[in-house]
Structures are given as C-alpha cells and as structure tokens.
Design a protein that fits this description.
The chain is mainly α and about 270 residues long. Helix content is about 75%, strand content about 0%. The chain has 12 helices and no strands. The longest helix is centred in the N-terminal third of the chain and has 33 residues, at about 65-95. The radius of gyration is 23 Å and the shape is globular. It starts with a helix and ends in a 5-residue tail after the last helix. The relative contact order is 0.15.
Length: about 270
C-alpha cells in the first residue's frame, strides 16, 4: 500500500498542480466579479458583502439573452450535421474501403495544415456571391466545412479500431452497409461522437473571427461577439468585465463538465489513437 502511494505521489502532485493552474484564473475572475463596480480589484479576495447583481447588470449590458439564442441556432445548425457527415465519411473510408478512400482522406488532412486565417477572405467573397452575408446560414455552412478535416480524422480513427469481423458478420446476416452503420456502428461510436460533439460545440460557441467577418449584425453573432462589444463599452470597469466574461464562459464549462465522461471513454477506447 505504501509502495503504491509512493509511486502515485508524483502523478498526484502533477495533477494537483495542473488543476490549480487551471482553476486559479477562474477564482480570480469570480472574486473580482463580486466586488463593487468601478473598483480595480487585485488578486483573490472575496468581499464580505458580495455584489451578485453584477452578473445581472453584465447580462443586460451585453445583451446575452439574444446572443445565447443566436449561438444556440449556430450550434444546432453546425454540430449535428457535421457529426453525421463526418461519421458517414469516416465509416466509408475505414470500414467500407471505398475506391480512392485514402486519397480523399489525404485531401482532408491537407485541410488541417491550412492556416485558418487564409480562408477568411475567400469565404467572405464566396458568401457574398451566394447572397448569404450577414445571415446565420452564411456562417453555418463554412463552419460545417471547416470542421470536416478534423471530424473525419477523429471518426476514422474510431472506425479503424472496430474489428472488420463485425461488419462482415452483419453482411452475412443480411444487413447492408447503411443498416449496419445505423444499428451497429453508430451505437459503438457513441463515446467518439459525444466527444467530437463537445469539441465542435466549443469551437462553434466560441467562434469569433468568422462571426465578425461574415455577420455585421451583432445580434446574429456568437457569444464571443458579446465579449468584444462588452470590452469596447466597459473596458474600464474591471468588475463588470469579469462578470460578463464568466457568463459567456459558463455554457462551455457546463457542457464540458456534463460530457467529460464521454470524452474520457473515447480516449480510453482508442478514438484518438493514430
């Protein structure tokens, strides 16, 4: 028992240090958000009379209700469709061994090597030619496409870890590729799909650059756009700024906490193995 504790001590110390390193900024922001508006708090010091109304003021000032709806529409338009398309493509490449599947996969991998910023200008003119500028559809379509390289890579790794004998036995039993995909492969892919959904939710919810380039109306942007407007209007009020930042971060933290078990299961199941 003592030997086991001694062996695990370095791991425990490293995990504790990593947790403190991650939590410390949030504690600092939380303590600052409870201070009196107009002050300049330093370090972590919780007031004896917390000003909880700062969060209500920040919510109203940043127009977060409207932006929550806008971000939810974007997430619902991007994440389910991207998950479905990427899982179908990955299944075809990894399990069905379609002709030129590796060539298609290589082309998708090239998309991971492209700097994100270089596609912004072409996307702007493309959405302009389609008449989709300043519309949420004009942001949803590019985000689905930009998510494809990583999403297909992620799901292909999972489907490669599934024994081919499972697909072969389903074919012997009379199930075609589509039926095998729906009733056998997708249930096995739940951990990988859930973890992929979390990652795409975080990237879509926090999307900033494309949102401000393709959409002029602030009410149609993501939550990250709220922080930009909030900083511009209240950059001198540190207390209100911290309260607004915490409100904007809260949904992403909540989603990760709720679905973290699926993320861990995907890691352990080999969903991210090369």
């Amino acid at each position: 028992m003592l030997d086991r504790l001694r062996d695990n001590a370095p791991k425990t110390v490293l995990l504790t240090a990593a947790a403190l390193f991650s939590v410390f900024p949030l504690l600092s922001m939380f303590s600052a958000a409870l201070q009196t508006q107009g002050t300049a708090p330093a370090g972590i010091s919780f007031p004896t009379s917390p000003n909880w109304h700062n969060f209500v003021d920040a919510w109203n000032v940043a127009n977060i209700t409207t932006l929550v709806r806008s971000s939810a529409v974007l997430v619902l338009g991007v994440v389910p469709i991207a998950m479905l398309i990427s899982s179908m493509a990955a299944y075809a490449i990894a399990q069905l061994r379609i002709p030129f599947g590796n060539v298609f996969f290589l082309l998708l991998l090239l998309g991971l090597t492209l700097p994100y910023e270089i596609v912004v200008v072409p996307l702007y003119y493309q959405m302009q030619s389609l008449g989709l500028l300043n519309t949420q559809l004009g942001l949803i379509l590019p985000l689905i496409g930009l998510n494809m390289p990583f999403a297909v890579f992620w799901m292909r790794t999972h489907f490669q870890s599934v024994p081919l004998e499972i697909s072969e036995s389903s074919l012997v039993d009379g199930a075609g590729p589509w039926r095998a995909f729906r009733h056998i492969q997708l249930p096995l892919a739940v951990p990988a799909l859930a973890s992929l959904g979390v990652l795409m939710f975080l990237s879509t919810w926090n999307q900033f650059l494309l949102a401000i380039v393709l959409i002029d109306d602030p009410d149609k942007r993501t939550m990250a756009g709220a922080l930009q407007g909030f900083v511009g209007a209240h950059s001198t009020d540190v207390v209100l700024l911290n309260a607004g930042a915490l409100l904007i971060m809260a949904p992403t933290i909540l989603v990760f906490v709720v679905f973290q078990k699926y993320f861990i299961r995907a890691m352990l199941a080999g969903a991210v193995k090369g």
